[in-house]
Amino acid sequence: MTDQTDLRLTPQRMAVLDVLRAAHDHPTAAEVYERVRRSSPRIGSATVYRTLALLVSTGQALELNLGGGAAARYDANVGRHDHAVCEGCGRAVDLDHPVPDGMMAEIARRSGFAITGYDLQFRGICPDCQAHGAGPARLEGPARPQ
Ligand SMILES: [Zn+2]
Ligand SMILES: [Zn+2]
Questions:
Q1: Residue 63 · residue 49 · CB < 8 Å
Q2: What is the CATH number of the domain that holds 106?
Q3: DSSP 3-state assignment of 36?
Q4: CA 55 to chain centre
Q5: Which residues, listed in sequence order, are joined to residue 28 by a DSSP beta bridge?
Q6: Does any domain span residue 8?
Q7: Which domain holds residue 112?
Q8: Do residues 80 and 98 make contact, with C-beta atoms less than 8 angstroms apart?
Q9: Is the dihedral of CA 63, 66, 69, 75 positive or negative?
Q10: Do 10 and 25 belong to one domain?
Q11: pLDDT of res. 121
Q12: How many angstroms separate the alpha carbon of residue 84 from the centre of ligand 1?
């Protein structure tokens, strides 16, 4: 077995990657599994989970840990980008508005770090959740009395 160095895209791996590339909502592993099963009904969840880990380790997908103990989400957009995370429904939206170069240089200068990268995450309430009146209270313990 040379599983760890075997980077070939088998049909099952391809199916997982296809699902991820078609998704724009940063699905969790469970959501990826649900979607892959529509085209590959015989695929097992272990295969999907293993494939996601492989795609992350080979740089074909990003694993996003968005905090709050939420399940990791997956992203086939591996280019430099940041996210806005909804505190109502938990979905993450891509932001294509990079931090200005001058700000990176300033942070490097002040901290003494040779900065190699960053992960920026904005939190808020997405338009859908705003329309349905949802708020952060859903994630923060007991609901407010009406
Ligand atoms: Zn939302
Ligand atoms: Zn993303």
A1: no
A2: 3.30.1490.190
A3: helix
A4: 13
A5: 73
A6: yes
A7: 80-139
A8: yes
A9: negative
A10: yes
A11: 87
A12: 10
Helix (H) or strand (E) holding 129: helix 127-131
Q: What is the tens place of the pLDDT at every residue in 82-139?
A: 899 998 888 889 988 778 878 888 999 999 999 888 888 899 999 999 998 865 544 4
Q: Which residues pair with 84 in a beta bridge?
A: 93, 122
Ligand with smallest separation from the Cα of 130: 1
Which residues, chain by chain, have CB under 5 Å from ion ligand 1? 86, 88-89, 126, 129
Both tokens assigned to 115: 């900065």
Residue 55 placed within a domain: yes
Assigned token pair, 2: 């040379």
On whether residue 146 sits in a domain, the answer given is no
Angle at the Cα of 121 from the Cα atoms of 112 and 46, rounded to 5 degrees:
110
In angstroms, what is the span from residue 98 Cα to ligand 2's centroid? 13
Domain count, the chain: 2
- Its pTM stands at 0.73
